[in-house]
Design a protein that fits this description.
By secondary structure, the chain is an alpha/beta fold. The chain has 15 helices and twelve strands.
């Protein structure tokens, strides 16, 4: 039985290493020494895997030493693929991981990529690095596969084995081997794509489609707000039709929906086509934080609350509910916009490590906001702790005259003063 090495132990890599590690030798590699130390102690900072689940992977070992990867013959690369400040794909982590694998690559080995990329990246960007670093020849000495991740952070219902997996390989035989490999842990089944490029394209449009649908309802929310029509009421009415898609307005961040479309548009522009609909959707979604802030300011002015020097409490910093991940969160756009109006902004989030918030965004979390302090309270992320507390409890943080903004439309219309 082949030994597997999983490179990158974040939201994607760790659950994968755990499932394979229940039945076969797995080397879990990450460059973050603190992350490896915590995993060895049975602690997962992402909260995706419990201590008991980690203990169940009896064949899984952890390392930060790239030399340890030489013991494997199948390498699965699950490193992040972010965008830079100019919204261009940043393949630096992917290239570094490919170099690390290339140094230990042997004849007959298979390198499988799970990181989200544009179509062609595996064979055009990563394979040449493997070849140059190892001195081996692609599809003669070593082979490649691509199986896009479909992890949904914070979702305790749709776990890795429960989500159907797309697989692919650089030759028909390798495609079959890769498919059978994943079929051994994915109870929901697999789908073998006809090529690596097809699998790459399938992944990048999954989130592009969601991004565009959310952009549509965000634009509808802007229109209906100008018409003084409650957007949630409209969506509830429209949702009575069997084929109406249940998307809701809101902030679109994270490392998938808010990022993946830029990988597709980058490749499209590289081949001479300028996308219009995809980028239009991105512009709408990227502007929703500033829009939400402006709506709050208008609501405060209508209540004769002096804006400059006012205090606002933002509840939630992560990019989605019940998840500690703050990567590419668009809540920071609300914070930035409010501060430009001269508003004093406090941010509270019980799931976020204060050191991470400070390091990533320069935000000092208020871990214990005082009741009766704020002119505005914004529930930006629908963590269960906020839902369960209820609107009345969340309002206690505010002064008698205030605006309570429910960005996620969690509570009833009569329980909030403002929502998208």
């Amino acid at each position: 039985m082949r030994t597997i090495a999983v490179i990158g132990l974040g939201y994607v890599g760790l659950p994968l290493a755990l499932e394979f590690g229940k039945s076969r030798p797995v080397i879990g590699f990450d460059v973050n020494a603190a992350r490896i130390d915590a995993l060895r102690e049975g602690e997962d900072a992402t909260r995706e895997v419990t201590k008991e689940e980690l203990a169940s992977a009896r064949h899984l070992t952890f390392t930060t030493d790239p030399a340890d990867l030489a013991a494997a013959s199948i390498y699965i690369i699950t490193v992040p693929t972010p965008i830079d400040a100019h919204k261009q794909p940043d393949l630096t982590p992917l290239r570094k991981a490919s170099e690390a694998v290339g140094r230990v690559l042997k004849r007959g080995d298979i390198v499988i990529y799970e990181s989200t990329v544009y179509p062609g990246a595996t064979e055009e960007d990563c394979v040449p690095i493997l070849e140059s670093t190892s001195g081996l020849t692609f599809n003669e000495d070593f082979f490649a596969g691509y199986s896009p991740e479909r992890i949904n952070p914070g979702d305790k219902t749709h776990r890795l084995p429960d989500i159907r997996k797309v697989t692919s390989g650089s030759t028909p035989d390798v495609a079959e081997e890769v498919d059978q490999l994943y079929a051994s842990i994915i109870t929901a089944g697999t789908f073998k794509a006809e090529s690596i490029r097809v699998a790459e394209a399938a992944k990048v449009i999954e989130n592009t489609q969601r991004d565009l649908n959310i952009a549509l309802v965000n634009e509808l929310a802007i229109i209906f707000n100008k018409m003084d029509i409650d957007t949630e009421a409209v969506l509830e009415a429209a949702g009575t039709k069997w084929n109406f898609l249940p998307f809701r307005p809101g902030l679109v961040g994270g490392h998938c929906i808010g990022v993946d479309p830029y990988y597709l548009t980058h490749k499209a522009e590289a081949i001479g086509y300028h996308p219009q609909i995809i980028l239009a959707g991105r512009r709408i979604n990227d502007g929703m934080g500033a829009y939400a802030a402006s709506q709050l300011i208008k609501a405060m002015l209508k209540r004769r609350i002096h804006v400059e020097g006012a205090k606002v409490l933002i509840l939630g910093l992560t990019f989605k509910e019940n998840c500690p991940d703050v990567r590419n969160t668009r809540v920071v756009d609300i914070v930035k916009e409010l501060r430009e109006y001269g508003v004093q902004v406090d941010v509270h989030d019980p799931l976020v490590d204060p050191a991470v918030a400070e390091q990533e965004y320069g935000i000092t979390l208020n871990t214990q906001p005082h009741p009766g302090t704020y002119d505005g309270v914004v529930m930006a992320v629908a963590h269960d702790s906020y839902r369960n507390a209820g609107a009345a409890k969340l309002r206690t943080y505010a002064r008698s005259e205030h605006v309570f903004c429910d960005l996620k439309s969690v509570f009833g219309r009569d329980e909030s003063d403002l929502r998208l």
